[in-house]
C-alpha cells in the first residue's frame, strides 16, 4: 500500500529566486528571534545557529487537532494517578529493574524517599503527549463517516521529564507566519492555531512557586553540562523573569547541585542561603547525565527536599515506556479511570503495545515481531531520542535477546505510519534552496498539572509543538539533528 499524502498549504515547488530570497530572510529572522540551537560541531557560548525548520506549516486535520487538545487534561490526570500509585509502579517496573540499571537507580531513589517519608506532597507535571496521524484508517467504512487516510492519530509516547519546545513550538508558528506573509499568503495564517506553550508551561512553574509560599525562595533549572537547546531553555527563564521579576532562577548541573546545595533541618534545599521552591529538570533523563555517584547523590538530595520537583521521581517513573505499554493492557486504564467515555477515548489513541517480559505473552510478542519486524519499533526505557530500534534491527536484537531476561527492559510497539507531505527543510550549513522532500510530522501537546495524591490544584492543556522529519528517517529529534521545527496548518 502506498503511503497516504496530504497536500501542502500552498502549491510546491516555489519559484527558485523567490525561494532563495525568502530562505535568506527567514534565516535572519530565525537568528534574531531565538529559532536557534548551539552548534554541536563547533560549540561556543558566543554564538547560536539556526535550528532546522520547515519553511511552510504542515497540514494537520482540525478535528484531530481539537481532539488531541481536548484529551490532554484527561491524560494529565491519568499520569498523575499513575505516578501516585506505588503498587502499580512497583509491579509494572519490577522485571525491567532487574536488567536496566538506569531505571533501577531512579527506582532506588524513589524507595529511599518513600521510606524516609515524603516531605513535599505537591508535584508539578509539565507533560508532553506526542502523537502521529495514522494514515491507515483503522475503521471499516461503515464505522467511520470520514474514512479518510488521516481520520485518527496514535500516541507515540508521553514525556514527564524535560518536555522541551515551549519556546520553539510557538516561535515556529511566528517564523512560518513571517514566511507566508513574504510569499504573499498572509491570509493563510488564520489556519494556524494560536500557541501559548511558553507562557502556559511557565505558569506551571510560577504557580508551583506560589504554592511553596516562601517569598525569598529561588527556582533551579537542572541543566546539562553543555546545553545545545539553549534558546528553548533560556526563553522559559526570560518569560518567568518578565512576568515575575521577584523570582530568581539559577541554571545548575547535577554536579553543581551536589557541590552548592545543602538540606537544612527542615529538609529545605538551600542554595546560596535561600530555600529552593521549584526544581525544573531539563537534564537527568538519560544515563550519560549521571557520569558519577555525585549526580545520583544530587538527585537524591533534591528528591528528599521540600522543593517542588518537575518531575518528582515517581512522575519520571510514570513516564517510562514500560508504564505506557502496561496502560494499554486490558483492564488497566479502567483501573485508573473507570469505564467512562474518556477511558474509551484514551484507549483509542494507543497503538499495539506489547510486553517482552520473560513469560508466555512476551514469547508471543517476540514471535510476532520476528515474523514481521517491519511492523514494529523496539523501545528501551530511555528518553531523549535515538534509542529505539526499527525494522531489521528489531529482528537482530530479538534474536540476540530471545533467551535473555535483558529483553524485559524493552517494549514492542506497532509502528505508526503517518501521511506524507511535501516540504522544504531549511538546515544550518545546507545548500540553498533545499530540495522538495517527503516529510512526516509528530505533534506534541503540552499539559500542566499540579497537585498532591488526593487534590489537584490545576490541570490544563497549555499549547503544542510540531516536529517534522524526512519520511524515511526513523527518528526526528530536532536537538539530535534529524527533525525540524514546524507548526500545524489546519485542514
Ligand atoms: P524518546 O522518549 O526517546 O523521544 P519516542 O518513543 O518518542 O522516544 O521515540 C523517538 C522517535 O521515534 C519518535 O519521535 C518517533 O519519530 C519515532 N517513533 C517512536 N515510536 C514510534 C512508532 N510507534 N511509530 C513510528 N515512529 C515512532
Ligand atoms: Mg520521550
Ligand atoms: Mg519522544
What does this structure look like?
- This protein is α+β, with helices and mostly antiparallel strands.
- The protein folds into two domains: 61-170 and 193-349 and 439-490, Rossmann fold (3-Layer(aba) Sandwich), CATH 3.40.50; 352-415, Glutathione synthase lid domain (Dna Ligase, domain 1), CATH 3.30.1490.
- The chain is 37% helix and 23% strand.
- The chain has 15 helices and 23 strands.
- It has helices at residues 16-32, 62-83, 86-99, 101-116, 168-182, 197-212, 230-243, 254-260, 293-304, 313-318, 321-327, 332-337, 341-349, 360-371, 392-401, and strands at residues 5-6, 36-37, 49-50, 53-54, 58-60, 123-134, 152-159, 218-222, 249-252, 261-263, 269-271, 274-281, 308-310, 353-355, 376-380, 389-390, 410-414, 420-423, 425-426, 437-451, 456-470, 484-486, 488-490.
- The strands form six sheets. Strands 1, 6, 7, 18, 20, 21 and 22 form a seven-stranded mixed sheet that branches. Strands 8, 9, 10, 11, 12 and 13 form a six-stranded mixed sheet that branches.
- Helix 1 (16-32) packs antiparallel against helix 5 (168-182), helix 4 packs parallel to helix 9 and helix 6 packs across helix 7.
- The two termini are 24 Å apart.
- The mean pLDDT is 95.
- It binds adenosine-5'-diphosphate and magnesium ion (2 copies).
- Residues 157, 159, 383 line the site of one magnesium ion.
Amino acid at each position: 500500500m502506498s503511503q497516504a499524502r496530504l497536500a501542502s498549504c500552498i502549491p510546491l515547488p516555489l519559484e527558485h529566486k523567490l525561494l532563495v530570497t525568502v530562505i535568506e530572510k527567514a534565516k535572519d529572522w530565525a537568528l534574531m528571534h531565538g529559532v536557534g540551537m548551539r552548534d554541536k560541531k563547533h560549540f561556543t557560548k558566543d554564538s547560536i545557529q539556526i535550528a532546522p525548520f520547515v519553511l511552510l506549516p504542515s497540514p494537520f486535520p482540525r478535528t484531530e487537532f481539537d481532539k488531541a487538545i481536548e484529551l490532554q487534561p484527561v491524560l494529565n490526570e491519568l499520569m498523575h494517578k499513575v505516578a501516585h500509585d506505588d503498587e502499580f509502579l512497583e509491579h509494572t517496573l519490577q522485571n525491567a529493574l532487574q536488567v536496566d540499571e538506569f531505571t533501577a537507580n531512579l527506582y532506588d531513589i524513589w524507595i529511599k524517599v518513600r521510606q524516609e517519608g515524603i516531605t513535599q506532597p505537591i508535584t508539578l507535571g509539565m507533560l508532553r503527549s506526542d502523537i502521529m496521524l495514522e494514515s491507515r484508517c483503522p475503521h471499516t467504512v461503515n464505522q467511520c463517516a470520514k474514512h479518510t487516510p488521516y481520520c485518527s492519530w496514535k500516541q507515540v509516547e508521553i514525556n514527564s521529564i524535560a518536555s522541551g519546545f515551549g519556546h520553539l513550538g510557538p516561535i515556529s508558528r511566528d517564523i512560518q507566519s513571517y514566511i507566508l506573509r513574504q510569499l504573499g499568503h498572509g491570509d493563510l495564517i488564520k489556519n494556524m492555531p494560536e500557541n501559548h506553550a511558553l507562557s502556559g508551561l511557565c505558569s506551571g512553574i510560577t504557580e508551583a512557586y506560589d504554592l511553596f509560599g516562601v517569598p525569598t525562595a529561588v527556582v533551579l533549572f537542572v541543566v546539562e553540562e553543555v546545553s545545545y537547546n539553549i534558546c528553548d531553555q533560556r526563553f522559559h527563564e526570560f518569560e518567568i523573569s518578565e512576568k515575575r521579576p521577584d523570582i530568581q532562577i539559577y541554571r545548575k548541573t547535577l554536579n553543581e547541585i551536589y557541590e552548592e546545595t545543602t538540606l537544612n533541618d527542615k529538609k529545605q534545599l538551600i542554595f546560596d542561603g535561600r530555600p529552593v521552591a521549584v526544581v525544573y529538570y531539563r537534564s537527568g533523563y538519560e544515563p550519560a547525565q549521571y557520569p558519577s555517584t555525585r549526580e545520583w547523590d544530587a538527585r537524591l538530595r533534591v528528591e528528599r527536599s521540600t522543593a517542588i520537583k518537575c518531575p518528582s521521581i515517581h512522575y519520571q517513573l510514570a513516564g517510562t515506556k514500560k508504564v505506557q505499554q502496561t496502560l494499554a493492557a486490558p483492564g488497566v486504564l479502567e483501573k485508573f479511570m473507570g469505564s467512562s467515555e474518556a477511558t474509551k477515548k484514551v484507549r483509542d489513541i494507543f497503538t499495539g503495545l506489547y510486553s517482552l517480559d520473560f513469560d508466555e505473552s512476551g514469547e508471543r510478542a517476540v514471535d510476532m515481531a520476528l515474523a514481521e519486524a517491519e511492523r514494529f519499533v523496539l523501545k528501551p526505557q530511555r528518553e531523549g531520542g535515538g534509542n529505539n530500534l526499527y525494522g531489521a534491527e528489531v529482528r537482530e536484537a530479538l534474536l540476540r535477546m530471545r533467551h535473555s531476561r535483558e529483553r524485559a527492559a524493552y517494549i514492542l510497539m506497532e509502528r505508526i505510519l503517518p501521511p506524507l507531505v511535501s516540504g522544504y527543510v531549511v538546515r544550518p550549513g545546507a545548500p540553498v534552496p533545499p530540495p522538495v522532500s517527503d516529510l512526516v510530522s509528530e505533534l506534541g501537546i503540552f499539559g500542566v498539572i499540579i497537585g498532591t495524591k488526593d487534590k489537584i490544584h490545576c490541570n490544563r492543556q497549555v499549547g503544542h509543538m510540531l516536529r517534522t522529519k524526512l519520511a524515511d528517517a526513523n527518528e526526528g529529534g530536532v536537538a539530535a539533528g534529524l527533525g525540524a521545527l514546524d507548526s500545524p496548518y489546519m485542514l
